[in-house]
Each structure stands twice: as C-alpha cells, then as structure tokens.
TrEMBL record:
<dbReference type="InterPro" id="IPR011009">
    <property type="entry name" value="Kinase-like_dom_sf"/>
</dbReference>
<dbReference type="GO" id="GO:0005524">
    <property type="term" value="F:ATP binding"/>
</dbReference>
<dbReference type="InterPro" id="IPR008266">
    <property type="entry name" value="Tyr_kinase_AS"/>
</dbReference>
<dbReference type="Pfam" id="PF00069">
    <property type="entry name" value="Pkinase"/>
</dbReference>
<dbReference type="GO" id="GO:0004674">
    <property type="term" value="F:protein serine/threonine kinase activity"/>
</dbReference>
<protein>
    <recommendedName>
        <fullName>Protein kinase domain-containing protein</fullName>
    </recommendedName>
</protein>
<feature type="domain" description="Protein kinase">
    <location>
        <begin position="1"/>
        <end position="144"/>
    </location>
</feature>
<dbReference type="InterPro" id="IPR000719">
    <property type="entry name" value="Prot_kinase_dom"/>
</dbReference>
Amino acid sequence: MVLTRSIKGVPRLVAVSLIPPAIIMTMHGPASLVTVCKSKPVDERVLLRTLHDVAGILITMHNMGLSHNDVRPHNILVSDIRCASNLKVTLIDLGLVTRHGEYPFGRVPIFNAKPFYAPELMHVIKPSSEATDMYSFGYLIKCL
C-alpha cells in the first residue's frame, strides 16, 4: 500500500490475515482528539499544532491525487498532548480514501449524512477533491 509508506502521519500496514480476516496496522497515540479534548482543557498551542499536522498530512495526500473523505476529530490520534513539541498526530481510518474525482460512497445520495461530510459529496453533486476534504477540515476547526 503506497499510501501508508509514503505519508508521514498515517498508520503503517504491518500484516494481513485471512483467517480470521484482519488488517493489522501500527498503533499511534493513546487517544483520539475527541477523547483528549473532553477529558481536560487542552492548550491552544497544542490544538494549533494538531491542526497544522493534520493539514500537512492532507496536503501530502492531495499532492498524490487522493482524498481522505473522513476528516473528523474521532479519526485523529494524538500522543503526548501535554507538550506541543513532543506531539505526534496520526490521521486514521483510511477506509474512504479515494482518488480525486471518485465517489467514496458510490453514486447514491446519502440523506442522513454526518455534518463533517461535504454536502456536495453526500448529494452526489461533485466527487471527492481537495475541496471536500477542506470542508471536513473546516468543520474540525469549528468543533475545536
């Protein structure tokens, strides 16, 4: 899987098992951004660093012609939230990654869509692109 080898900040593929069916990937960070933000106040420098790192991961994916299509606080793992300089950020859940111009959910409109999905993607008006990921990234900023 080229994606996991060439992008810093996404899990790495370790193994695939047929029996039982499983994909084994590296573990990054003890908690999602949601868990961390709900458990205690987080320094805004740490949040800005987290957003900066997620933006960097997305830029790398976009330069490869790929859209993540599922950017949201639950899909961001963080380690060592106490210190911005030691923070490691990982964007997980690569199940909806597509090439730009593809529809991650097919060409069927989804009417009970989550608020972090771009409306044009959910209503099959436009396919995945940098813009659809940036909509989700904007919603992430709103949530934080």
